[in-house]
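Ticket reopened. Same input as before:
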Amino acid sequence: MIPCSIGDQTLSHRSSRLRRVLPTVLACLPLLWPAAAEAARIQDVVEAGVLEQAWRFLSLRDPSVRLALAGCVLLGLCCGLLGTFIVVRQYALVGDTLAHAVLPGIALGYVWTLSKSPLHLFVGAVLAGLLGTVVVSLIRDTTRLKRDTALGVVLGGFYGVGILLVTLIQRLPGDKSGVKSFLFGSAAALSESDVLLIAGVAAVSLLLLGLLFPHFRVASFDPTFATSIGIPAQAMHYLLMLLLAWAVVSALQAVGVVMVSALLVIPAATAWLLTDRLHVMAALAMGIGMAAGAAGAFLSALKTGLPTGPFVVLSAAALFSAAFFFAPRKGLVSRVLSKSRQSRRIRRENTLKAIYHLLEEGGFADETVTRQALVERRRRPVAEVDREIAALVAHGLAEPVSADGRVRLTPPGRARAAEIVRNHRLWELFLTHAADIAPDHVHDDAEKIEHVLGEDIVRKLERALDQPTEDPHGKHIPLAQTHP
Amino acid sequence: MSDPLPALEVHDLTVAYHKKPVLWGIDFQVPAGKLVGVVGPNGAGKSTLIKAAMGLLPLSSGWVQAFGAPLRDQRHRVGYVPQREEIDWDFPVNVMDVVLMGRYGKLGWLKRPGRRDREIARACLEKVRMLPYADRQISNLSGGQQQRVFLARALAQESDLYFMDEPFAGVDAATEEAIIGLLRELCREGRTVLVVHHDLASVPDYFDWLVLLNLRLVGCGPTTEMFTPAMLSKTYGGQLTVMTEVAQALAKNEALARETRH
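Engineering reply: fixed in the latest deploy. New output:
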């Protein structure tokens, strides 16, 4: 069916047809959506439709939904707050390791009473966490291995033991409900006491870190200095680790032991992309944690049977991606945008400079330059030079004189052009005089520097060079702020 | 406010890292109001000395007094400038936050820095000519500016005895000049400043008192008496490398290490 020879005409014909058909196909896509929803509903008649499920969740009719939402939101708040201090202290991996290392302790705590008694789980978790910390220090102090390696060993080793124990517990006779959710969480199964535990940890963390915020800030920023002024940085570190262990235990039922470590790190990391102040970062991290908790509880409620933890963490990760790309100053997109703004400005300034050079060669007798002269000067295609001229006109730096592309600089355009040339020649002079660089080596450097020299640096250069009038190549240095 | 008591008295101070002694039986006194240089070769234990003196490291033996009382009880009279490299400069705080930390030692546990603390912090920033940068995040500063922020934080402590760990490391000549001017002013006010210093050339210019150190105390006294070729070759000379070897041997033999500590 493939034609042996496809003429240009056939090809363009086919592509234009595709262009005509594609919008229609795209427009029809939404129509398929109800059909898909219909299919889902027919498949499991017992369950309500997605929209109805969403409504049930949002109306908070069911007590279990209320508990799930409250639990996840409070947990997000608590983890956002604790995570802030963990992330800024560069303890993210420590938090991660601790969250994984408590699993065997939790499993043994469960075996202790064969129920999810928070006290026994907590004792088990703290003991396992302590043991993990001791093993990390032991590995660091007695071998040549560094901290991250020691943490990796403990994380993997303890977690392996934990998984083994959890699997064994599930084989025990009797009621083992909820043991499996230790790993990934199931907010739908949150009981009132689970939520109370989370609320308790959140309240204690908020109270302690809130009241002692300045002290925690200095102890995190500069522990040696903190100790020197009598703030017990070491004790506060252990307090933070204890709160962390407690938060991990409280998070078990809601998001599970694996996902809580992500919930500790991601909201705080997201917040750090958005601010330079610790208290703002803590507030943002709590907000992001709460939003991720709510979104995770909502998403896992839509389709029962799926664990909550991954949804909470995915929501947090989505927020992190948004911050990574779109954060006002540090975001990838904003950085690319500002870079392209800058390169457009540099291109404009180079055009201005070329015009200035042309005027200078003519002894400033003629106020205008032709497009042709500019094309030769810039060594660029006509279309590109036309675009450059249009950019100058758009910024009020030049104005067209005649239809054939003759342009004149406006007063602000002339001032800026003189400034650029002045920067360039001053810098060349400075390099040859002060830095002892040969005159034929300085041009390329000045090509870059001319665009970034600020007013006060220029003044300093002038003073250093004793108000010079000629550059190393014998060219006149235009006066600042005057129009030639 | 010159104290008749020595500003700092260190007695038989021994410090060990992982059982390896890094300072041996240090004994010295510093009178109040002196600008003191702590000088010695790399690895001589200069930073360790000031950290141990401030109680930031466990002592194997000895004691430290400031103004006639254990230094532990005099923390409010002691200020500290740590090495710049010990800090994560990306930490989310601005210049003002850092300088205000100098006031925390005088705050109670549940108090926040008040208006007076802010005024003092601003005045200290003005002294190091960093006030225009008060709202800057600290990573957006040059090395010299960061050092000046640390100095402002120390000034905000309003202490009588200062320990400074290489405040001139990585700063330009102009900043160094400005810093030494401030330190001289502190001493004129009767305060005592101990500075860990690397550049031997500027020692006689900067300090009026010297602590010469190389694992043990080589000498302590007025610069005119200490800054002599004989003392310097004792401090930097090769004969002391044997101490390092003995220290390593001790580290290998635990029983022996325990013995030397008593």
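The mean pLDDT of chain B is 86. The domain at 8-261 of chain B is CATH 3.40.50.300 (Rossmann fold). Please confirm and we'll close it.
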